[in-house]
């Protein structure tokens, strides 16, 4: 859901997170888990907002992931992950359950369908075929994951080729990893997208040198974030539940005369692995301009704590808008699910106020209560704990929404919320 608000009515902007009293007097601060909080100081286009949702906002048609178009093999050959499979699969010829598959390349993506079959959507062609050679005789990119019931698959990794007649020195990371599948609105792999395969890295020189601190990877995308269950309905291949990761890509490295890897004598910094378990950080795009604040619980280096009591959550946007709490009794607790707030007095104050004519705000949360505040405690968003999970919204003392029921919200499920604070006053979904 998204809420639009004319920020000019409160030009002082956002000042704190999860840390203030309710103007209604019931002391309802935010309770439970906050994993990611971002603010963009510009108006985002629809495509930019969609990319932050990992291209998962809106209805999608079910489709196989795609790979290089000119591959040949068992007809019809497809290296991309299989789409979501509907209906009863018994006797369908399909073996990997109803969830979509991951893209393949040098390694097979999760939930491949090597024989194809038929489901409620019609013919389900072969998917997840492995292709290419160790020597990369044909230089090819990776393959995308299949679409789930609600979310798109991740893209396949790209292809990078560098050839030098003399000395080739690699002094920076080279990454051709597959994209992560779109996360599901609930914990069910059949709704999430399959992840893309790794791509290709080809490096060749007469003398090839990899400097210390450098990594080279063509790894498959990890399974969709925040999803661990489901997707295995009527599977007969012996695979487990959960979202499909992408298969590993291909890496070719040759020093015709000499090859030196200063980082690892065993080349552990060179990988083309299949995707593993997702990191919550994979949910968001980092490439949209205008990022003003980014608090990321998945990045332990950004969190200062003592015995898991968090005193500072550092801003990763580069703008120094850190969230701080010096009072020990009011410090949220660092957990594997994010930062946990007690709903009584836990919260942060931002180092700097965030004031822009337009803001886009994104949260990954599991809980209820105020999420952020403007000056003078004009809390713009509230899920009322006393009468269900309702929206409460006040600007300059005026209640625009008072205990308005919000369908589909549950504080028992991790959810992604977006708020667009720009011109006009309207509620849209």
Explain this structure.
Helices cover 2% and strands 31% of the residues. It is built from one helix and 25 strands. The protein has one helix at 46-52; strands at residues 2-4, 14-17, 31-40, 117-119, 122-124, 159-170, 174-175, 200-210, 216-217, 250-261, 270-271, 291-296, 303-306, 309-313, 323-324, 333-335, 338-342, 348-354, 359-368, 373-374, 382-383, 390-395, 398-405, 415-421, 426-428. A six-stranded antiparallel beta sheet has the order 13-14-15-18-2-20, with no helix packed on it. Strands 3, 12, 16, 17, 19 and 24 form a six-stranded antiparallel beta sheet that branches. The longest helix is centred in the N-terminal third of the chain and has 7 residues, at 46-52.
- Sum up the overall morphology in one term: globular
The proportion of strand residues reads 25-35%
H/E topology pattern: EEEHEEEEEEEEEEEEEEEEEEEEEE
**Number of β-strand runs:** 25
C-alpha Rg (nearest Å): 24 Å
Quick overview:
The protein is mainly β and 429 residues long. It has one helix and 25 strands.
Task: Outline the secondary-structure elements.
Blueprint: E1 2-4, E2 14-17, E3 31-40, H1 46-52, E4 117-119, E5 122-124, E6 159-170, E7 174-175, E8 200-210, E9 216-217, E10 250-261, E11 270-271, E12 291-296, E13 303-306, E14 309-313, E15 323-324, E16 333-335, E17 338-342, E18 348-354, E19 359-368, E20 373-374, E21 382-383, E22 390-395, E23 398-405, E24 415-421, E25 426-428
Parallel strand pairs: 6-8, 7-9, 8-10, 9-11
Antiparallel strand pairs: 1-25, 2-18, 2-20, 3-12, 3-17, 3-19, 4-5, 13-14, 14-15, 15-18, 16-17, 19-24, 21-22, 22-23
């Amino acid at each position: 859901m998204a809420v639009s608000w004319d920020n000019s009515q409160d030009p002082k902007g956002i000042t704190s997170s999860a840390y203030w009293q309710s103007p209604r007097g019931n002391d309802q601060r935010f309770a439970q888990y906050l994993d990611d909080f971002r603010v963009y100081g510009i108006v985002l286009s629809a495509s930019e907002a969609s990319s932050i949702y990992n291209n998962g906002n809106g209805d999608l048609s079910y489709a196989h992931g795609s790979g290089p178009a000119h591959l040949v093999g068992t007809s019809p050959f497809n290296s991309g992950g299989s789409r979501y499979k509907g209906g009863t699969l018994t006797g369908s010829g399909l073996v990997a359950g109803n969830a979509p598959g991951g893209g393949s390349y040098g390694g097979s993506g999760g939930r491949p369908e090597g024989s194809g079959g038929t489901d409620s959507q019609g013919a389900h062609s072969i998917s997840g075929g492995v292709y290419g050679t160790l020597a990369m005789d044909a230089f090819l990119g990776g393959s995308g994951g299949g679409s789930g019931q609600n979310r798109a698959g991740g893209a396949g990794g790209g292809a990078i080729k560098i050839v030098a007649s003399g000395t080739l020195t690699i002094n920076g990371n080279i990454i051709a990893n597959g994209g992560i599948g779109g996360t599901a609105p609930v914990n069910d792999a059949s709704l999430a997208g399959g992840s893309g395969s790794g791509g290709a890295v080809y490096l060749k020189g007469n003398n090839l040198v990899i400097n210390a601190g450098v990594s080279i990877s063509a790894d498959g995308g990890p399974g969709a974030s925040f999803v661990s269950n489901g997707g295995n309905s009527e599977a007969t291949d012996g695979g487990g539940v959960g979202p499909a990761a992408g298969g590993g890509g291909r890496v070719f490295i040759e020093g015709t005369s000499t090859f030196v890897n200063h980082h690892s004598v065993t080349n552990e910094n060179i990988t083309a692995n299949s995707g593993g378990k997702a990191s919550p950080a994979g949910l968001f795009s980092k490439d949209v301009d205008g990022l003003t604040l980014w608090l990321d619980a998945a990045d332990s280096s950004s969190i200062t704590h003592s015995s898991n009591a968090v005193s500072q959550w550092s801003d990763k946007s580069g703008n120094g808008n850190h969230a701080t709490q010096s009072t020990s009794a009011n410090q949220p607790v660092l957990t594997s699910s994010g930062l946990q707030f007690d709903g009584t007095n836990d919260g942060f104050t931002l180092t700097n106020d965030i004031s822009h004519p337009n803001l886009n705000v994104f949260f990954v949360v599991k809980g209820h209560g105020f999420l952020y505040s403007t000056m003078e405690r004009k809390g713009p968003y509230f899920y009322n704990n006393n009468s269900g999970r309702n929206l409460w919204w006040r600007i300059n003392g005026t209640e625009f929404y008072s205990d308005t029921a919000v369908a589909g919200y549950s504080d028992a499920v991790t959810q992604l919320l977006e708020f667009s604070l720009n011109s006009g006053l309207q509620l849209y979904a």
